[in-house]
Amino acid sequence: MTGDDDRRPGFQPVAADRRAAQEAETQLSLAGDSVPPSTLEVGSVLAEKYRLTRFLGQGGMGSVWVAERMGLGVPVAVKVMHAWVAAQPQYVERFRREARAALMLSHPNVVRVIDFGQHESTFFLVMEMIEGKALDEWLSESATVPSLADVVAICADVLDALDAAHRHGIVHRDLKPENVILSHDSQGRRVAKVVDFGLAHVEDPDTHAPTLTKKDMIAGTPAYMSPEQSRSLQVGPSTDLYAFGCLLTELLQKKPPFEAPSAIETISQHLFMPPPPLARPDGSEPVPPLLEALRLELLAKHPHQRPPDAGSVKQRLLESVDREASAARLPPRTGALAGGDRAARVPEWNSGVAPEAPAVHGRVAVVPRAGSLLADPAILTGLAAHGLSASHARQLDAPADVVVYDAGGSVDVAVQALGSGPTARVIVVLDHVDAAAMRRLIEAGAADVIAAPVAPDVLARKVKRLLKRR
């Protein structure tokens, strides 16, 4: 929708493009590059056609403004590259590709690009003015998780947008809640629109142009980046489907599947950690088994393990909440599968691991103290990077092949815990280790004793040594 309604309370005019202004790529944020102030101001005229009327924000690549099409009085959104970015040919080409990618798409679930031009030493992109809210804002304003009906409706629109892009050879590469806008059509029905193709990868059969991402350079938003994108490998439609799996997870539990204090830790979790179980608030609608199976398949570590395309994902999404379709897809509770194994009806998150994936040598249960280093998810990520399936546990007798038990500064506590007779081999982590403490713990049944703090790689070596002895 366009016009003066963008001033209504409760709405964010051009929210998509305000968010797009925060599009600084991962490599820029990690490098700590500062963004020079813009020389544009309200009243500036671009290419003698667009007068800037309001500043919305800026990011690492450019600034976003509300503008007016001179002579017509039509409000539009304008994204302007920073001059210092425009001085770098690779970013100009990426900006041009964004314009071309968006101009190729004419779809109700994709924000329409109107124009592309040059102003002095920089370039700008003109988009339709839309009235709506970014999905992340909509989620943050809700006291609980969205209804399954809302989740399915929003996801169906996003999948339609991805399907249209992929059919044109366009991979978005930065799908996330900030780049999905909830608006309304002319009949007042809510519609989700995908925006910001600033990192789009375009397969151009006419020019055979190579990707603009340099080798060993990553681009995207860590919380939604696929493992292959994190490794700076070739991306494809499956990359967007992985990001969609992250977005679906956030809709179902109000946070993405992986979160960590730093971008590097988050990327490591995408690379090595299995998706954690959904954390649904008490009293929420139960998630249908087929929807959970789809979510886990979307988050598979290797592209070939994910669904083939956005269209098939949408079909399975709709089936997952349809009782009759679900009954047809799921075999009877018993008898249809050998042994009546209910778990076998839901695909594992990472079945059929490609040869390059690390082998899992055993299960590790980490029993930390509150606030200790072992309570940090980075420990689990580090163990997973060494091919170990690790999880936090509360009890020393947790079912596992090896248990890592944090005794803090108390040898007595560790000896008492070991006396309960855990079935697994136990590695005791102690604040201070001396010969007497080690002898006492070994006599009590500990398989090994390590002084805190312990690094994940050191712990992994200790665990693997015990597993080999097994």
Radius of gyration, in angstroms, nearest whole number: 26 Å
Structural domain count:
3
Shape: elongated
Structural class estimated from helices and strands? alpha+beta
Poorly predicted sequence stretches spanning 5 or more consecutive residues:
1-37, 204-218, 342-360
CATH architecture of the largest domain: Orthogonal Bundle
Strand content: 15-25%
Annotated CATH homologous superfamily of the largest domain: Transferase(Phosphotransferase) domain 1
Major sheet size, sense and barrel closure: 6 strands, antiparallel
Whole-number mean pLDDT: 79
Question: Care to count the β-strands?
Answer: 17
Q: Tell me the distance between the termini.
A: 66 Å
CATH topology assignment of the largest domain: Transferase(Phosphotransferase), domain 1
Tally the helices: 16
Which sequence of strands runs across the widest sheet? 2-3-4-5-7-6
Helix content: 25-40%
What is the level 1 CATH name of the largest domain? Mainly Alpha
